[in-house]
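Q: Can I see a sequence and its folded structure?
A: Here is a first one.
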Amino acid sequence: MSTYHVPVMLDECIEGLNIKPNGIYVDATTGGGGHSIHIHERLSNDGRLICLDQDTDALAAAKLRLGSPPNVNFVKSNFGDLGSVIAELAPQGVDGILFDLGVSSFQLDTPQRGFAIRFKGPLDMRMDQTSDGETAADLVNRLPEAELADILFTYGEETRSRRIAKAIVDARPLSTTEDLVDAVRRAMPTGTRPGQVHPATKVFQALRIAVNDELGVLPRAIIAGINGLAQNGRIVVMSYHSLEDRVVKRILTEGSGKSIASDGWSVTDVPKVLELVTRKGISPTDTEQRLNPRSRSAKLRVAERIAAGMLNGIGV
């Protein structure tokens, strides 16, 4: 049976949050509750935890794991709506927010979700399967070849994007993960050798990001999180690929009063509201990477609210 993953960099996340027993904390990507349960056990009855996730299965697993303590709110929501959630449940501000980005082991290991290369399943990839949004199958069967190539290059950093896009279009209609893997393999000069990254890895990443608008929602969520912090509140963000980490680094850096060249969504009119707790992204220890290979690409960044003021972002 599929299970949710062991929480990555657990000690570093808890330390980064600097938890006060009577504080209010948000796990903005609750998953199966792996981090949430450790946050909650450090809270007194006067403290509160808000568990947020857009995945119904994730919230059900978290509820099972944490039980139904009176000081926990479970909220089914995309973290892009974090600002509204904080305004409703903690208008005075929160003392800490954790973002553990990316896809969970449960989602990867559940064939019906369509995230995994190694399992045959429907080509879905929606984080929220109750939504009426397009699936990965919808995208690969609908998009023009050039637009599909752009997605693979931009979100997957796939250098063979044009060749793969042509192979996908030639193979239409595609309905399963196996169909997509076969199309990608036909575009590659050789098969996968032992120890190599699977040739479809970047393609699956790119489509997942596109289906869930991950890089569109992320800036809005991070800025809303910063704006929702109380004085001395902490924001802790763990990313798993360079595209995510670049967004997080930019916003936290600009929020600390240091300007970075704009790229279209950048924070504007920036007051210094943050102090960077981590100057560089923290990586898992060698031991953790060995015990949990899925942690290898993780980068953790932490910042603390030091002043009043609102960050504004283009399109936010």
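Q: Show me another, different protein.
A: A second, unrelated one:
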Amino acid sequence: MSVAVVILNWNGKNHLKTYLPSVVAHSSSAIIYLADNHSSDDSVQFVKDNYPSIKIIQNKSNDGFAKGYNDALQHVDEEYYILLNSDVEVSENWIEPVIQFMKENKVSIAQPKILSYTEKNKFEYAGAGGGFIDVLGYPFCQGRIFQEMEEDHGQYNEIKEVFWASGACMFIKASTFHDLGGFDERYFAHMEEIDLCWRAKNKGQQVYYVPKSTVYHLGGGTMQNSNPKKTFLNFRNSLLTLYKNDTSRFTFLKIIARLVLDGVAVFKLLIESGPKHALAIIRAHFSFYASQKIKTEKTTINLKGLYKGSIAFAYFAKGQKYFYQLKKGFN
């Protein structure tokens, strides 16, 4: 059994200086790769000088998270990949519990518990305690619904099948990644891991959350929440993901419902964040409608982790701001 930790980097020397020491210290059972997306800083030289054991893969251009990993992983031969953001601090024994569980239970994709690097008693936005999705394609997590992050009191300490695993720290069998064709490169960044997991589940694969392993994610390391491009990518890619992967007969009606709900989000962001973010949502919809519409292959469909209601209705209308309050409605 061979394991590769693959860290995608773009001009991230400061993150590498902060977070690589923990990765090197606690990853003796794996081979560590730095996949560099054509950085213009000296981050590659920094790694060569300070961590000569780390293998370097240099991509020819910066074409985003999705293509960056697709290109880099063509050069990685290990049986299991751990796709790790450059702004993640890992803890002791973070690899073995997840890999062991995957191997013993024939699981293809998994993630650890992801807590905040700045508030280590709280779950972190990008993955938290494993990802779920609602009937309209809105993602949420154990420990995080919309912007509401829970404190970690051990309430999500059970191994659990989920709908998607976070790209901040995703464990995936190499054969599964390549059989699925890797990430959808149209996404550039954001939600490509949800699309990948949904495509895997549409072929009968399982995705698990394994909290015996814990990592700490800073978040927003490459693209800050204040950047309208992030808003654009999140909304556009969410629509793409829903259209591509939805297995019901009502995809068109769901897109109409998203148009209405995202319209509400436009007015909300117009008041809270100004016109740039509101316009980003509008551009996201036009970009989606103009995109090539391709449905993904569906064979043995596994919908475990799908919330059959609306997470927006549960949160805003019913006041259910925490995952444990969603007691019913899951596949």
